[in-house]
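We examine the record.
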Amino acid sequence: MSEIENGHGLQRRREAITGLGDALRLLIEQATATEAPTAELLRAAELIRRAAAPLGERVRGRFETAAADDLFGGVRLYNPVTGAGSAFAPPLEIHRDDDGAVGTCTLGRAFEGPPSFAHGGVSAMLLDQMLGYAAGAAGHPGMTVRLDTGYRRPVPLYTPLRLTARVAGIDGRRVTVTGTITTAAEPGDVLVEATGVFVALRAEQARRLFGPVTG
């Protein structure tokens, strides 16, 4: 019996993945902000290589999902936006509300574009996730086919952010969703806005794209 064939083992693994994700996010944040002496950088690099080596001894392939994930249950621990196990995720936390979805996150130095502000591509990534979540929560999941992003003001680092998304229209398999990024302190002052179009896959499209994927 594998270590995750029972509920207790699965929970322990998810907690371990989250713990590793927390450690990796701390490492990235410290690494992108550090002004440590060169000798310390070299020493840290060697320690990290040693720590990474055993993790690479057993890895999954492109079409294998993580053993601790639950695709149909919406558990994606390595999602690069919301995944607790992802070194790249802020992570963004999303909740449903009466008007769609609301998300919260704080971006650190690793997401910097212009000095002290987030990279524009990060804003687009966050909004793509928010809009897709809102479409799915409304019962119309689909894949992004268009994302139009308008940047009004730069998004500050180290500042709690509030993201919103709601379905604006449904036309057959096409769903239009709108969303915004603001600071939590000033939710009426829009920093970035976006409109996305999502299209539900036909059965044959889903088979072609995801047929090789195994759980």
In short: The chain has a mean pLDDT of 94. Helices lie at 7-33, 38-55, 120-137, 203-210. DSSP finds four helices and six strands in the chain.
